[in-house]
Amino acid sequence: MHVFITGANRGIGLTFVKQYLNLGWRVTACCRDLETANELVALTARYESLTTVEIDLENLDELQVNDLALPTDLIDLVIHNAGYYGPKKVRFENIDLSEWRKVLEVNTLAPLLLSELLYPKLNITGNCALVFISSKVGSMADNTSGGGYYYRSSKAALNSVVKSLAIDLTSVGVKCVALHPGWVLTDMGGPHALISTDTSVAGMISVIGSLTQQQSGAFLDFQGKSIPW
């Protein structure tokens, strides 16, 4: 089994890499700059089943899938984990359009475009899935505090992308799902978060492993519970 993971140099992405390697999967791990991804690169000395790839999700216009030098194995699972929060504490009357565009580029546009690029490499005759790491803050129903315009809107838009993609790929049996990893102890989640990356990722791997075609297009948390749109 072969999994392709973006944002794999730290936090949730790196934990996905470690846990799937330990499960015996072939892993293609992507990040923007391998020169600074010391822990990820160190894993390549221990696991022949690990391939590392540089991808800049802010610059996908010219990217061709053949540029990535992927393993020949077809891809059974894509995890779109890379994300960018942007400036924090953004409130009304304090909007920076260039930063907002960057957040949307990484969190919303890139996952769909990369899915298109990878589609010819997907094992669509197998139990293939596209997983998009979203966030509960993208839920309209859950928004009771306002603010967070950039990140909220990017994840709400991502959820819409996942729903449409799930419908479009139903005929070929590719499952698509948006997952909320929980409030995780990462650079983005901060020191007051509630769960570790190990707990979050183990939960998401369990959810991914049990996904049914009927759940394609759903918005779920790391325990498999449905989140309102």
UniProtKB/TrEMBL annotation:
Database matches in PANTHER family: SHORT CHAIN DEHYDROGENASE (PTHR45458:SF1), SHORT-CHAIN DEHYDROGENASE/REDUCTASE SDR (PTHR45458)
Lineage of producing organism: Bacteria, Pseudomonadati, Pseudomonadota, Gammaproteobacteria, Alteromonadales
InterPro entries found in the cross-reference section: NAD(P)-bd_dom_sf, SDR_enzymes, SDR_fam
Top-rank taxon, per record: Bacteria
Protein name in the entry: Short-chain dehydrogenase
Pfam family, one: adh_short
